């Protein structure tokens, strides 16, 4: 689902106090020697030479300064926080347990693993807003061109490959291949799923609904941040409340075009997921305020708080209902307007706790090398795990009837990680290096 030693423009622009005195001394010494040894014409020539050299040095210095200033406005790759990669790892592993449907996943998350996607949504809002706020603090603006270029280099290559391979491997089951490709390419999978358009049915692209939600967020949020710079917290809070009320309204619809036809109608589209992303955005905005950050540090920055939050979220996930089993109005309201918002608030609190106390035990646990690595490959792992599960089930163990479900589940996870690692190192990394090379 990214710098205290950095030279700032002020530091670069500050003059070197030694240079004027040194230049003057050289000028005096040279002048005395030439006056004693040569005529006025030679002295004039030597002064011109010294001035030319000083001018050249000055131009080089100013060019270096301009280069350093430009470099200081670029996002830094070493801003990546290992603990947040660990949060990504928890999210993607939850999704894997849900989609595998195996006994081990049932022990860990029961049927609440689907909440991993909601963790991704909150985390995405938190991270993207933080990146944009840092850019605005450095440059006093947000470059939409650079933002979209960074997102394209980060997400598009693997996504295009995913669409191509998924369509090729499931062409026999897809009713309209070109319609499926068009919906996926335009990032409209969320509404195709939520509104039952049926264009991607059987294509294997259904899993891209969450990416479609994210892309729409990327499309509108930087512009909103630029437009409502002076009252961004209020606008963000209004969006959260508006999305919650919109879901409340949808849950009461029993007839007409907005009728609640199935659970994905309220749980799988941009307009009904915006509140989760905005919670992460609001947390990041709040942390940019010194007074609010200080308050969070005194409250959520306590060691036991992050531990308690992690445990509560885990128990909450284990006790969560599967969306497909929710039918009557009371159940729908409890799931979409009470339980899920509370879970996302808990995730938001955990992210803030990690931000204000980055050396906590939970942060160290989430930042462990294996956790951080799984978090780094989580994008590819999300895209490819469905195909990996299919390969394991349909080909590796096709003729094996005595294999245990637990062993097959472990093999599913191993195959998914193998697919994701290949995708990350062979496809993602070259474009990430290009992204760094271009300074984006």
Essential attributes:
mainly alpha; about 75% helix; about 0% strand; disordered N terminus; 20 helices; about 450 residues
Folded structure, characterized:
By secondary structure, this protein is mostly helical. 76% of the residues lie in helices and 0% in strands. It contains 20 helices and no strands. The chain has helices at residues 9-13, 18-37, 40-72, 82-100, 103-109, 115-139, 144-170, 177-185, 189-194, 209-227, 232-251, 264-267, 270-287, 290-299, 303-319, 329-356, 361-366, 369-376, 378-396, 405-437. Helix 4 (82-100) packs antiparallel against helix 6, helix 4 packs across helix 18 and helix 7 runs parallel beside helix 19. The longest helix is centred in the N-terminal third of the chain and has 33 residues, at 40-72. The chain is globular, with a radius of gyration of 28 Å.
- Poorly predicted sequence stretches spanning 5 or more consecutive residues: 2-78
* First-to-last CA distance: 17 Å
| Subunit organisation of the chains | single chain
Taking all Cα atoms into account, the compactness measure Rg is 28 Å
According to DSSP, the number of beta strands is 0
What summary fits the major beta sheet? none
Outline type? globular
SS-based class: mainly alpha
Quick recap of the structure?
Helix content is about 75%, strand content about 0%.
Which helices and strands occur, and which strands form pairs?
Layout: H1 9-13, H2 18-37, H3 40-72, H4 82-100, H5 103-109, H6 115-139, H7 144-170, H8 177-185, H9 189-194, H10 209-227, H11 232-251, H12 264-267, H13 270-287, H14 290-299, H15 303-319, H16 329-356, H17 361-366, H18 369-376, H19 378-396, H20 405-437
């Amino acid at each position: 689902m990214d710098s205290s030693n950095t030279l700032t423009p002020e530091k670069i622009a500050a003059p070197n106090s030694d240079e004027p005195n040194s230049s003057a001394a050289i000028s005096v010494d040279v002048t005395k020697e030439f006056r004693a040894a040569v005529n006025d014409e030679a002295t004039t020539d030597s002064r011109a030479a010294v001035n030319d050299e000083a001018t050249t040095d000055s131009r080089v210095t100013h060019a270096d300064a301009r280069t350093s200033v430009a470099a200081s406005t670029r996002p830094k790759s070493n801003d990546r926080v290992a603990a947040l990669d660990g949060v990504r790892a928890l999210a993607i592993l939850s999704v894997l347990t849900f989609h595998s449907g195996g006994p081990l996943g049932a022990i860990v998350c029961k049927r609440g693993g689907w909440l991993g996607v909601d963790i991704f949504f909150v985390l995405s809002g938190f991270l993207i807003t933080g990146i944009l706020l840092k850019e605005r603090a450095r440059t006093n603006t947000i470059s939409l061109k650079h933002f979209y270029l960074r997102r394209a280099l980060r997400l598009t290559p693997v996504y295009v490959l995913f669409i191509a391979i998924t369509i090729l491997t499931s062409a026999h089951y897809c009713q309209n291949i070109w319609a499926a490709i068009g919906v996926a390419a335009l990032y409209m999978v969320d509404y195709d799923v939520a509104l039952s358009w049926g264009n991607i049915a059987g294509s294997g692209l259904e899993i891209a609904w969450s990416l479609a939600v994210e892309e729409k967020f990327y499309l509108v949020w930087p512009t909103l941040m630029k437009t409502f710079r002076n009252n961004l917290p209020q606008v963000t809070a209004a969006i959260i409340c508006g999305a919650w009320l919109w879901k409340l309204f949808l849950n009461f619809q029993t007839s007409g075009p907005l009728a609640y036809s199935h659970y994905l109608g309220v749980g799988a589209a941009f307009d009904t997921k915006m509140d989760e992303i905005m919670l992460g955005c609001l947390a990041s905005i709040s942390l940019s305020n010194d007074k609010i950050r200080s308050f969070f540090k005194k409250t959520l920055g306590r060691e036991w708080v992050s531990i308690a939050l992690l445990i509560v979220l885990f128990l909450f996930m284990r006790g969560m209902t599967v969306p497909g089993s929710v039918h009557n109005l009371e159940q729908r309201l409890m799931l979409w307007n009470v339980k899920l918002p509370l879970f996302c608030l808990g995730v938001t609190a955990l992210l803030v706790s990690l931000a204000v106390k980055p050396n906590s035990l939970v942060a160290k646990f989430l930042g462990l090398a294996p956790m951080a690595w799984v978090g780094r490959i989580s994008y590819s792992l999300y895209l490819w795990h469905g195909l990996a599960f299919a390969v394991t089930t349909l080909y590796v163990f096709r003729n094996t009837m005595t294999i245990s479900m637990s062993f097959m589940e472990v093999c599913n996870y191993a195959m998914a990680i193998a697919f994701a690692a290949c995708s990350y190192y062979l496809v993602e990394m070259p474009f990430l290096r290009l992204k760094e090379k271009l300074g984006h």
